[in-house]
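Postdoc handover notes: sequence design on the structure in folder B. Input tokens:
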């Protein structure tokens, strides 16, 4: 068998020992050995040929190792068979590998490269002559990174980019300085490609990001203005994180505080953002949704839209739905019920189609919402007692009109996850298998630390596995996304008494594990 770029055949050798030591031989003994060797070699080759045909039945096994749509070089590929052991080769600059003159039989192909797992983990191949091509593998890097320096760094949202890297948004703040909105681009292996900050003499913070079809980004958050008030803020960047020449930065708001917590590109190549607005000095907040075109101009006269009750209301997440409308989730405060989960369906012009107020416990908040493959909705958040006590994570699956009734509709459910300490969930995403990934944080009284949390649920809401991560005294997972390779990307922040204070990002395999 030959490997790619190697013209020599690999033949098992024959060795003969003489009682385990050297000895001086007589001419007769030497003649005997000369006679025995050809006979033994003939019998060995005949036995080999009886189960493998090296002449008429050889095969070529070839494939490619890809990361996103790119070939990955310097991956060790090993082929193993019971007759000759294991032979190895390396992928070339295009990620290709090949083994030539492979005799008839069954072989296993495995790959290895530090910090990467592969899908599939192993291939079993039966060779019976001819070319066995397209034996491809998908590379799945896993890693953990902390991005920071002097001051405080936070990551609130992460998205996979078209080149299979990642974009993160949040903020940084040095000692005695203002907050700056921060946008960071990573490659597939977690290396920083670029880092851009935005803001001026006033505070600025970025809470959410979405990827645009041209490879750019839209970012939402808030910017402070004179009088310590906040404005609703949308930022459009190109693929290099720049506003020039095609990007823009716009603020929207009234006389008082406004903040945008969530943003998504819409089907008409515009953008929708949601958060809250305060309409009077010392007044309560109302849910606030704004739609803008590709240049950032408000789609008047219909938008912006404000929704609310007599208490404090805010939208924490908004998504465009398959019918062109929007689903929004957050919280609403009432005197009678305290803080409740708000789930609201809007049509394309912002009219309310239906609105659901849900109480999981005494003090509830929704942080994330997604439309599911069956036309329902998935949302998550946390609940806690009104006075003291720890919080618990809840995850809710509704039908297409926002209701949950497990007795009448088995496709809907509510799950509450309690822990010894307190726990909160911030993000939920549907996975390719129909299940769901939930990220958050949990306080462990035994360790005295806050650990980042990732929970994988089945389509029916059953907990399949759970992972916790501790990189400091406080580690929090604000955002999770399933990745193209079947793994997960998670982002948040880490704090420690040793001065480590930074954005925290971890790339996981399909089991939620970092494979070193």
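Designed sequence:
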């Amino acid at each position: 068998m030959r490997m790619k770029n190697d013209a020599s055949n690999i033949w098992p050798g024959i060795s003969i020992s003489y009682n385990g030591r050297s000895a001086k031989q007589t001419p007769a003994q030497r003649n005997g050995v000369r006679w025995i060797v050809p006979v033994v070699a003939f019998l060995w080759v005949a036995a080999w040929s009886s189960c493998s045909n090296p002449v008429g039945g050889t095969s070529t096994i070839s494939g490619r190792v890809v990361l996103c749509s790119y070939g990955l070089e310097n991956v060790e590929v090993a082929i193993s068979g019971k007759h000759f052991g294991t032979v190895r080769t390396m992928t070339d600059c295009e990620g290709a590998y090949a083994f030539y003159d492979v005799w008839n039989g069954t072989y296993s192909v495995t790959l290895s490269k530090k910090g990467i797992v592969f899908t599939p983990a192993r291939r079993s191949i039966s060779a019976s002559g001819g070319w066995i091509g397209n034996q491809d593998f998908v590379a799945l890097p896993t890693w953990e990174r902390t991005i920071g320096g002097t001051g405080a760094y936070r990551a609130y949202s992460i998205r996979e980019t078209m080149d299979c890297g990642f974009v993160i948004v949040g903020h940084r703040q040095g000692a005695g300085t203002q907050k700056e909105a921060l946008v960071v681009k990573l490659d597939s292996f977690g290396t920083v490609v670029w880092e851009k900050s935005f803001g001026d003499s006033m505070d600025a913070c970025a809470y959410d990001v979405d990827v645009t079809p041209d490879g750019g980004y839209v970012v939402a958050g808030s910017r402070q203005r004179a009088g310590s008030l906040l404005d609703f803020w949308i930022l459009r960047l190109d693929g290099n994180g720049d506003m020039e020449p095609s990007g823009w930065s716009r603020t929207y708001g009234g006389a008082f505080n406004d903040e945008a917590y969530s943003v998504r590109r819409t089907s008409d190549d515009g953008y929708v953002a949601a958060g809250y607005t305060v309409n009077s000095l010392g007044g309560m907040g109302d849910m606030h949704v704004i739609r803008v075109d590709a240049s950032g101009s408000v789609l008047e006269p219909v938008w912006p839209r404000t929704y609310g009750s007599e208490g404090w209301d805010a939208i924490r997440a908004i998504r465009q739905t398959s019918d062109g409308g929007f689903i929004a989730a957050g919280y609403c405060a009432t005197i009678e019920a305290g803080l409740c989960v708000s789930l609201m369906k809007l049509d394309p012009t912002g009219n309310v189609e239906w609105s659901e107020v849900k109480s999981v416990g005494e003090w509830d908040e929704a942080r994330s919402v997604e439309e599911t493959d069956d036309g329902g909705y998935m949302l998550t958040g946390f609940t806690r007692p009104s006075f003291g006590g720890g919080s618990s994570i809840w995850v809710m699956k509704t039908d297409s009109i926002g209701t949950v009734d497990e007795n009448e509709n088995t496709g809907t459910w509510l799950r509450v996850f309690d822990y010894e300490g307190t726990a909160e969930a911030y993000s939920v995403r549907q996975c390719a298998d129909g299940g769901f990934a939930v990220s958050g944080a949990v306080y462990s009284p035994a360790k005295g630390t806050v650990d980042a949390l990732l929970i994988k649920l089945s389509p029916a809401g059953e907990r399949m596995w759970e992972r916790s991560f501790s990189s400091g005294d406080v580690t929090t997972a604000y955002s999770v996304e399933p990745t193209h390779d079947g793994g997960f990307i998670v982002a948040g922040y880490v704090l420690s008494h040793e001065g480590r204070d930074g954005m925290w990002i971890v790339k996981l395999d399909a089991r939620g594990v970092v494979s070193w």
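Context for whoever picks this up: The CA atoms of residues 48 and 369 lie 62 Å apart. Don't rerun without checking with the PI first.
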